[in-house]
Amino acid sequence: MLEPPRTHVHDERTVYDGSPWLHVKRHNITTPDGMTRSHHSVQLNTVATVMLLDDHERVLMVRRHRWIIDQVGWESPGGIVDPGEDPEACARRELLEETGFEAETFILVAELEPMPGLVQSKHYVFIADHPRQVNTPTDAEEAGRLVWVPVYEAVDLLARGELMGAGTAVGMLAALQLARGREFDSPGQECVTPFEAG
């Protein structure tokens, strides 16, 4: 396969250091059309997120308010990978902190950069199964309502803009694909967990 033309980076400098959350850099570049110009980029942390899939074709989602976009929607548990931390270990930690659940098997279904033209923030997306509740949520900052959501609602939720974040959207679609190839127990009527975070 032929390689595409490349953009050449001549130099870069940090113009804003918002440690530990973000850095903004200014780059001097030459684009494939031969134009030399400046371009900014935002460097964010690496993130790991997990879709916890049960035997009833459902995933455990957090319904929460995100004040930056002033929107209520669905998210999968997840968070920032600590320096030196393995992404799967982060996903397991965040799942426990945000939901009180553990899981048996974690499968990496995606490694992606959601907005590579402007932002660098690697996302690791996992699917986990065989859930077991071992605690109540302990992360009050990420408080929300925990709900078991049928995976077959994925396309409708995505079309309505209710799946917040690229990791959540990718994980939900991967869970839907996985669910289509599995055998499940008969789902119960109650989807809401017996506790709420916060």
From TrEMBL:
Nudix hydrolase domain location is: 43-171
Which InterPro entries does UniProt cross-reference here? Nudix_hydrolase, NUDIX_hydrolase-like_dom_sf, NUDIX_hydrolase_CS, NUDIX_hydrolase_dom
* Pfam families per record: NUDIX (PF00293)
One GO BP on record is:
ribose phosphate metabolic process
Q: Which cofactor does it need?
A: Mg(2+)
- In the UniProt record, does the keyword Hydrolase occur? yes
Keywords from the UniProt entry = Hydrolase
UniProt cross-references to CDD domains, sorted A to Z: NUDIX_ADPRase_Nudt5_UGPPase_Nudt14 (cd03424)
Q: Name one GO molecular function term.
A: pyrophosphatase activity
One cellular component term (GO) for this entry is: cytosol
What family does the entry list? Answer: Belongs to the Nudix hydrolase family.
Name of the protein described by the UniProt record = NUDIX hydrolase
Organism in which the protein naturally occurs? Nocardia otitidiscaviarum
